[in-house]
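Re: that backbone. Tokens:
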């Protein structure tokens, strides 16, 4: 029997395989040459492509040590990220216990709320459904909606194109879904969004979700 000891180091064959995969991936990139303008450069584009091809994570060249706002990039299907504001965590929302308590929160009479929702009097003190409550907050509430509003104020438009990929602000993607959210595709484009935000001196830091979870779990001094 042969005993194999894992040293944590890649063999030359594994290194070559990863290099070939990175090169093949780089060849599939759709590059918008006309958008390689300040604050971007051909060197930045080359570094972003190489980093993602070898690390499978966007290169995040932060320009500052401290930022005013953090937005989290949540990995999605189809090679992209959804962005959300961690300060607007749904778990921090307190759902009123009953319909009557909800009317009080809204500064509304119970009778007006009952008429709005076609509610019978015997249900005034019944438990309020949490899903109904969150739906009532509207399409720009919560973490995704907050990120949408933050980026809309900065961009003044609903799409920003980069040397690779683009950021899209989507105000509902179907008749049954009015949620407002921001997404960026492909994943390597996250590099260009961060560089753009730093160039505009916006004070926003984009953090990958796994890094954000580590930051949350780290002990605070």
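Recovered sequence:
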């Amino acid at each position: 029997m042969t005993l194999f000891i894992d040293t944590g180091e890649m063999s030359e064959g594994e290194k070559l395989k990863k290099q070939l995969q990175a090169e093949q991936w780089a060849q599939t990139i759709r590059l918008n040459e006309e958008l390689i303008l300040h604050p971007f450069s051909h060197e930045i584009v080359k570094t972003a492509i190489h980093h993602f091809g070898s690390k499978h994570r966007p290169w995040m060249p932060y320009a500052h040590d401290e930022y005013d706002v953090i937005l989290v990039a949540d990995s999605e299907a189809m090679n992209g990220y959804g962005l959300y504001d961690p300060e607007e965590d749904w778990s921090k929302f307190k759902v009123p216990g009953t319909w009557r308590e909800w009317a009080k929160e809204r500064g509304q009479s119970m009778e007006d709320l009952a008429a709005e929702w076609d509610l019978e009097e015997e249900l005034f003190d019944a438990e309020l459904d949490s899903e109904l409550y969150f739906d009532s907050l509207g399409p720009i509430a919560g973490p995704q909606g907050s990120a949408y509003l933050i980026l809309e104020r900065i961009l003044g438009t609903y799409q920003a194109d980069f040397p690779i990929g683009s950021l899209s602000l989507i105000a509902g993607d179907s008749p049954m879904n009015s949620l407002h959210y921001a997404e960026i595709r492909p994943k390597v484009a996250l590099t260009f969004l961060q560089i753009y935000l730093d160039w505009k001196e916006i004070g926003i830091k984009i953090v990958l979700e796994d890094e954000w979870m580590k930051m949350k779990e780290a002990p605070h001094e």
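The CA atoms of residues 8 and 14 lie 12 Å apart. The helical segments are 12-27, 42-55, 99-105, 110-117, 130-136, 142-155, 190-199, 209-217.
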